[in-house]
TrEMBL record:
UniProt name for this protein: GNAT family N-acetyltransferase
Family annotation (InterPro entries): Acyl_CoA_acyltransferase, GNAT_dom, N-acetyltransferase
PROSITE patterns noted in UniProt: GNAT
Matches recorded under Gene3D superfamilies: 3.40.630.30
Domain of life: Bacteria
Cited Pfam families: Acetyltransf_3 (PF13302)
Positions of the N-acetyltransferase domain: 13-181
Native organism: Candidatus Rhodoblastus alkanivorans
SUPFAM superfamilies according to UniProt: Acyl-CoA N-acyltransferases (Nat)
Length: 203
């Protein structure tokens, strides 16, 4: 699914404030601390709670294996000012009609627009390096912040579901989609900028 350019752990995306890179074993303590926060985990479909460093390490190993096969693409978000400090994760997995996003951001970093910046870069890169016609996401109906962030990136609600995946089986969930032909529209409307660079060996 994903081309050779993304299957090497030197692949990175750059935005104004972030580097997005493959997760590393050294990220496990930070991932455990941030994703282990119930206020973060509860919005996701599958992050267990409590969440240990062993859980995080298994997740990292699985992510790197999927990345290397081109079966998925999971990237760690790091601040440019602290490039070794992870603040969240964004993942892209194939689904029946394109690619689906999954993401979380550590609670200390909420309210800064960081995940919106990351998702804008990720969708930009996905449409450039894959042939996907759509990128989708599932969000809880009550998660108004995530919905607003995705809408700012150009996603629109296409489905209202009685339940979602994982722990959200009984929770009203929204299906949101960004089609390829709407890809550039959010930048024209909101002034968001594309990824400054993407590829191998960025410094």
């Amino acid at each position: 699914m994903f081309p050779d350019i993304a299957r090497d752990d030197v692949f990175r995306l750059e935005t104004r404030r972030l580097w997005l890179r493959w997760p590393r074993a050294s990220d496990a303590p930070a991932i455990a601390a941030l994703a282990g926060d119930w206020d973060v985990a509860r919005w996701t479909a599958s992050i267990p709670h409590p969440y240990t460093e062993d859980d995080a390490l298994r997740c990292i190993i699985a992510a790197r294996a999927c990345n290397a096969r081109g079966a998925a693409l999971r990237l760690a978000l790091t601040l440019k000012t602290f490039p070794r400090k992870i603040v969240g994760i964004v993942g892209m997995d194939p689904c029946e009609y394109g690619l689906r996003l999954g993401f979380w951001l550590g609670r200390p970093y909420w309210g800064r627009g960081l995940m919106g910046e990351a998702l804008e870069a990720v969708t930009d890169a996905l449409f450039r390096i894959t042939e996907a016609e759509k990128v989708s996401a599932l969000v809880l109906a009550e998660n108004t912040a995530a919905r607003a962030m995705l809408e700012k990136c150009g996603f629109a609600v296409t489905d209202c579901l009685d339940g979602g995946p994982g722990r959200h089986g009984d929770s009203p969930t929204l299906g949101m989609v960004l089609p390829r032909n709407e890809w550039h529209a959010p930048r024209r409307a909101t002034g968001l900028q594309p990824a400054l660079a993407f590829g191998r060996g960025l410094s």
